[in-house]
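Give me structure tokens for this 171-residue protein.
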Amino acid sequence: MGKLPAPISEAESCGRLVAERGLELVYGGAGVGLMGAAANAALEAGGRVIGIIPERLVEWEVAHQGLSELRVVGSMYERKQIMMDLSDAFIALPGGIGTLDEILEVMTQNALGYFWKPVALVNTHGFFDSFQTLLKDLEKAGFYQPRDYVIYSRNSAEAIRKLSELPIENP
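Here you go.
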């Protein structure tokens, strides 16, 4: 869950807002941490929530048991692929290595032209400031070309608003 003061309430806000807009929440399938908080809030708001979780995490007893749909898969790679297939856009809250892996996977698929699916980074307490700096450094060094599919926002409401203003175009 991390040590930042506001992520749980931000995760709950994100889940609730997704449900209130009539959108489905597709996420990593855990019932704990920020993922669990977002899923619970979406469910409480009457939303449909689809979880995609690797068998190993089910064995560790972290799978959410009250979802609209829970898909158990064999690997993290398969989890990411299904999440990308089912989603039109992505919202990333502060998280760990898995979160960064998912963000970079979506950015890579966008950069290679496999799809155009924007990712909004909810920059709670400046969490993604150093990531934004890294991308700028990669750009200066000629290793990254910025695209309009990465969105920075102060909170979930702003992220959802910005995403809703974008066209969804998938080749």
